[in-house]
Specification:
By secondary structure, this protein is of the alpha+beta class. It folds into two domains: 262 residues, Outer membrane efflux proteins (OEP), CATH 1.20.1600.10; 131 residues, no CATH class. Helix content is 57%, strand content 17%. It contains nine helices and eight strands. The strands form two sheets. Strands 3-4-5-6-7-8 form a six-stranded antiparallel β-sheet, with no helix packed on it. Helix 2 crosses helix 5, helix 3 packs antiparallel against helix 5 and helix 7 runs antiparallel to helix 8. The chain is elongated, with a radius of gyration of 44 Å. The protein starts with a helix and ends in a 6-residue tail after the last helix.
Length: 488
């Protein structure tokens, strides 16, 4: 029956949408299923995002900071020894708001607004009427009764000239946070890529087991025919009992191999489904044939455990820089520009603070230093030793990776050599079986011998398939070393 072209196109689109080719579920599609369905990979992806955001925490040092307070005071305590002219009660409402930001240059800019509304209650003067004028004149030296309001606005600029110059101390903290994040992310990605390596190996194993299963089924049928033929010859006294027993033993061996292969296939299907987040008992699609890799990819020094060691070393460098900054003397120059005003109860207006009538300017230099030089040297020595440990760990990790690559190349070369021999053997067994068929057609051999030679050929095919699976597994390991498979 000829397939309608439109129907063929429709079926092709459906297969493509389902991630299936004509020869079954291919490896790239299966890896995509693992990326989407594996819970461990999804968790690792979320962890990767969390670690990336965690590295931004030190950036809060450069974030604008807003602070403020408001308080009310009612103080009726008269200090011991206070004069008769001291206030007997102070009532006040005060507030303060502060906006500041640290720049990348190490400059800190602060804008401060403060104010208060205060009432100083002065005791009355109990003087004779004849001295009332004196009391009235004396009261001019005291603040007027009632609440009076004051406000100030100050712009401050502080520039560090030594410690934290150009925000070096903050940068050290930021570098350490980024390096720690990179190390943790590399370790997390290393584990995630190991899951994709398992997925590649699971695909190769299941595909090979299914191909072997088909060959063993053929071998089982063939050995059954050999046994039946031998029994018939035995009944005609043309074969010995030992020949029957030999055929029965061969049949049992193939049946045993087939049962073992089925068990291995069932286990492989569970692992295959588990990796992609499917039910262990879910039906597995037909798989595409394995492609033998011609050669291993070029080695890179980008394996994620090596990247984690590099990041750990950067973290140690940042710790050393941070220790140096923390013990560096602080020399800073600062400038304050302020405006202030105060109103009294007799005034009907709220005091203005930006009129420029009452400016306040302050310029200064401040200095502080940690004098514990012994402690500084001890802390710095500890940080430098940690850095030395990180360098040794990185060098050791590089040696491990080089050794892993050498073993991988040697193993791959050995498998390729075995594959060459296996294919030569397979070709010989195939030619032997075909020539035996010709001899059988000419009546110069027996059906038993033809079936036996065909069985030998199929066993050589199994050996070739198993070696191809080994080569594919070694290629998957090389991809894992290079970090080629991105987990998300």
């Amino acid at each position: 029956m000829k397939l309608n072209p439109s129907l063929a196109l429709f079926l092709g689109c459906v297969l493509a949408a389902a991630g299936l080719r004509a020869d079954g579920l291919d490896l790239p599609t299966y890896l995509d299923q693992v990326r989407q369905g594996n819970d461990a990979l999804r968790g690792a992806q979320a962890q990767d995002a969390a670690l990336a955001l965690e590295a931004k925490q030190p950036l809060t040092a450069f974030s604008p900071q807003l602070s403020g307070n408001i308080q009310r005071l009612d103080n009726q305590i008269i200090p011991i020894g206070a004069s008769a002219l001291a206030p007997i009660e102070t009532q006040s409402l005060s507030w303060d708001a502060n906006l500041s930001e640290l720049l990348n240059s190490g400059t800190k800019i602060t804008l401060d607004y403060a104010g208060d509304n205060t009432n100083l209650i002065i005791p009355p003067f109990n003087l004779p009427a004849s001295e009332a004028g004196f009391a009235s004149g004396l009261s001019t030296f005291f603040p007027p009764s009632g609440f009076n309001m004051g406000q100030t606005v100050t712009l401050s600029v502080n520039q560090s000239l030594w410690r934290n110059f150009m925000a070096a101390e903050v940068d050290a903290d930021l570098d350490k946070a980024r390096a720690d994040s990179d190390a943790a992310r590399a370790g997390n990605r290393y584990q995630a890529q190991a899951l994709l390596l398992q997925a590649r190996q699971a695909y190769a194993q299941l595909a090979t087991l299914r191909q072997v299963q088909a060959i063993l089924n053929e071998s089982l049928d063939r050995n059954q025919k050999i046994l039946d033929w031998t029994k018939a010859k035995f009944e005609d006294n043309l074969a010995d009992k030992v020949d029957v027993l030999q055929c029965e033993a061969a049949l049992r061996q193939v049946a045993l191999n087939l049962a073992q292969n089925k068990q291995d296939e069932a286990k492989a299907e569970v692992a295959f489904n588990t990796l992609r987040g499917a039910s262990p008992t879910a039906a597995v699609e037909a798989l595409g044939p394995l492609s033998e890799p011609e050669a291993l990819p070029e080695a890179k020094d980008s394996r994620q455990d090596l990247e984690a060691a590099r990041a750990a070393l950067r973290s140690s460098d940042a710790v050393v820089a941070g220790v140096v900054q923390k013990f560096t003397p602080d020399v800073s120059v600062f400038v304050d520009f302020g405006e202030g005003e105060r109103s009294y109860p007799s005034s009907d207006t709220v005091p203005g603070v930006l009129t420029g009538e009452h400016p306040d300017t302050l310029v200064g230099l401040k200095f502080s230093a940690n004098l514990d030089v012994v402690l500084y040297r001890q802390v710095l020595a500890g940080a430098q030793k940690a850095r030395g440990s990180g360098e040794a760990a990185l060098a050791d990790k590089k040696r491990q990776l080089d050794n892993d690559w050498e073993q991988l190349r040697a193993g791959f070369a050995s498998v390729k050599e075995q594959l060459t021999l296996a294919r030569e053997l397979e070709d010989l067994q195939k030619e032997k079986a075909e020539r035996e068929k010709v001899r059988y057609q000419d009546g110069r051999t027996t059906n038993f011998q033809v079936l036996r030679f065909e069985d030998d050929y199929n066993l050589s095919r199994i050996q070739t398939l198993q070696l191809i699976a080994q080569a594919v597994g070694l290629d998957a390991t090389a991809r894992f070393y290079n970090g080629d498979d991105q987990p998300w």
